[in-house]
Amino acid sequence: MAILEVDGLRKEYGDFVAVEGSTFSIGRGEVFGVVGPNGAGKTTTLKMLAGLIEPSGGSATVAGYAPGEPAMQRQLGFLPEESPLYEEMTAVDYLTFFADLYDVPSDVARERIHRTLDRLDLEHRDRRLGNVSKGMKRKVAIARALVNDPDVLIFDEPASGLDPLTTNYIIEFTRELSDEGKTIVFSAHNLFHVESICDRIAVMNDGRIVARGTLEEIRDAHGGTEYHVYATVDASAALDAGRDAVGSRSGPSRSVAVSRENGRVRHVVPEMADVEAIREAVEANGGRVTDIRTETPSLEDIFLEIASDGPDGEAKA
Amino acid sequence: MSGERSAVDRECRRTKRIVRRSLDSLRRIGRIARWEVSRSAGTVDRKTVLVAVAMLLVVGAVGLSVADDGLGLADELYVVGVDGDDPYADVVAESDRFRAVPLEDVEISGDGTDSNVDVVVTRDGELGYVGENGEQAFDAFRDAIESYNENRMAEADDEVAAYPVLVTVSYQERDPLRPDGTTSPAESDGTDSGARDDSSTESSPDDGAAADSDGMTDGSTADSDGVTDGSSEPTDETRDGDELRVPDVGGTIDERTTTGTPSTLSPPFPFQSLLLAFLFIVPMNFVVQAYGSTIMDERIKRRGELLLVSPSSRYEIVGGKTLPYVLGLVAIVVATAVAIGGGPLSVAAVIPIALVFLGSTFVGAMLARSFKELTFVTVTISVFLTTYAFVPAIFTEVTPIALISPLTIVVVDLQGDPVTAGEYLFSTATFYLSAFVLFLLGIGIYREEDMFAQKPIPAKILDAITSQIDSISARVGGHWSPFVLSILGIPFVFAAQLLTVSLLFVVPDVVALPIMLVVAAAIEEFAKSVHVYAGFARGRFEATGRTAAVLGAFSGAGFFVGEKLTHLGQLVGLPELAVGTAAFGPELTGGVSIAVLAAVVLAPLALHVVTATISAAGARRGSIPYAVAFVVATLVHALYNLGVIVLVT
Fold this sequence. Notes:
The structure holds two protein chains of two kinds. Chain A has helices at residues 42-50, 70-74, 91-101, 106-119, 134-146, 164-179, 191-197, 215-221, 235-248, 272-284, 299-309, and strands spanning 2-13, 16-27, 31-35, 57-62, 76-79, 152-156, 183-187, 200-205, 208-213, 226-231, 257-261, 264-269, 289-295. Chain A is α/β, with parallel strands linked by helices. Chain B is mainly α. Among the domains of chain B are: 78-264, no CATH class; 478-649, no CATH class. Chain B has helices at 2-43, 46-69, 87-94, 134-155, 185-188, 190-196, 205-228, 271-300, 304-308, 314-340, 344-367, 371-394, 406-414, 421-444, 448-451, 457-476, 480-488, 490-504, 509-537, 545-563, 568-571, 578-584, 594-619, 623-648; strands at residues 78-81, 98-101, 119-121, 127-129, 239-240, 243-244. The radius of gyration of chain B is 32 Å and the shape is globular. The chains are: A alpha/beta, B mainly alpha. At the A-B interface, helix 2 and helix 3 of A face helix 1 and helix 9 of B. Chain A: Keywords: ATP-binding, Nucleotide-binding, Transport.
């Protein structure tokens, strides 16, 4: 059952369209990744879901409520890309104030705040936030998003600009939250993080969602598995042999990419059947195949391909 | 029966729900306010607080001292040798600049440098000076004598001291039989002269000249004597028989002259009350700086974003952030009132000023794009509002225009005079309504898209207005928004027109009236059309001629309704002034037929609808057509105003 539904969401600023017709739904407990280059419309989409920006068109519901309704805000924890904290306050005072705003009873708030800070391994809780590290500020910001124990979390670049250790800590913590049944909308530039924790992904470019689904579905739509065939023969002879072989089998329209690597020739083909044709061609030219590898494109490869294609490169919606 | 019961139950539940929501809302405002106080306390270290408090105390103490005694820099600067029973001793006693030394204690050295006095009044009534400061002391003593005489004059009732004074001058031939220019005894008698004039607004040139002439002659004689020989010659005019009298150096202080001419009258200036009233305004300038900074902080550092995603509405957030500053200002106002002897009326008059200070600072902080811009905005607001509040109050005892400032109410209260409810309402209603509308506009752009975006200020103003269009449209339908917004613009129209009236008050009518006619029309046309333009520019209205006509009609009708509120002006008699008439229209006198009355009532409605429609027609096509249409509408309006004034007066 979807806890978050988006239908034709649109945002325009004068003549500029920031988000165009975004449509997707997110099930309860799902981790949904939103990726895309800078200016793709990710943050605008997330802010529309959080009720911060009023959509120009379309609709969205979070936990059954329209964004901006107080009942919806109680169900939501929002972590913006930056951590704008009140630096003259301590972590505990800051979190207590927000718990108060969400009408969390003070004893519950106190227990929840300290438990969350324990989990985030946050030290110096009574130090002014202006005097703590960036990583600690980020942890406090995450704790603030959890202070009302929300069902839905929107994390916009939660690990942006942090050191690898803190980044891994935050990614791991996000995974734990997912395991606890929280629904998480997650945006990140580091696609490895998205790939590692998201159940489904939407790739945005120029304000549009250009690909959407599980990582496997997106991979299938944008290239899938590739086979790398390494041979010893002269590169040009092997290339001719390979091309002839592929052509004779009326193989895939996709051309065979050939490159040199450590004195060997690498042939990249999309089908297993092509591997055999290349092997035959190589042997016909007096060479031999030294290695065959299976390569799966990363989300980054797919993202770069989509981004370079522009909005018309949508392969699957 | 059961149906009635369930209806009552439903109503009860509804009421309970509203009460609960209101209490929740108040609770959240209270929480944010508490947090704002504790958070702000953390931004300022104790030393800074102590310095600020010390500065405020110093300012207050200096203000009180100046109001009470003057600056005091020249206290007992000069020493006058004079006997205690000498009439000149009263002059010394009244002035803080002098200290008296009995003649028997006067010591004068040969060259005067080691003397213990600067000025000496001999038992014969002769004046002289000695030492390095003697000449300056003597000049100052002459001024003190003049002030003493004027104060004695001021204590007496002056039947002609009414302001403003209109003078009709007619020149007459001087009597050739008296070439020295003096008048006959009968004419030179001021009492007769005053009594002879039919109106205090007229004076015969002979009277004035005679009085002046007499006075100046007397005075200059005394001056001349005193200054030229530095010592000795008492004038005959200063004596009456054997009795020593204070010399007449003021020009109007001859005992015989009990009435004054316009040139000798000074407008009544409530210096002390005015200065005390000003003490209310000073702390506001400090508080608005802090308030503007806290709002700006939320925007520049994007910290307000997290409050906006909380269940608190933006009204609650702004309410909570503003409440501590409102309470702080109220506390300061009450403390100031207690310190200077102001009553509850003074407090009630100053609070709307404080609210406008906060409201305009809030809007300024929402519009500014940097702290540098904020500084400019807050300083501008402080200067403008201080001027608006302070300058009219100078004329507290002169003209009803002074009542455009609530500070006038404070001055009146400090003087112990009564204030009617109508006068209080007239002075403060504009401030209360302006503060309300300013906060409304600011809250309209207290949202992510405007708070954290580097938009040009005009674009933000349009956004602020558009947010109110959206808010009104959601409740009563889109076309009603111009109607409501035109009414909400009335306080600013009223304030702007009153300010223009007060600025043109001292300008000759022949110049002031045409300016007032055009400016008053422009102010009204702007208030009627800017929201219509905002609606078109932001795509809230369909850009068709029919829509423009409908919106213009609604806007004009709304303004007509709101304009009736300005008839408060009639309560305090502003239309009696020529520029007041140009701004607010003439007051109808008796004997007007019903047809004329109906025409006079309905004609403004027609005017506002027509001119608002002209502006709306331009607004739908963009900014330049709007500007052109606005000018046309203003001219039509100004011509109408001129026609009405010509017809009715």
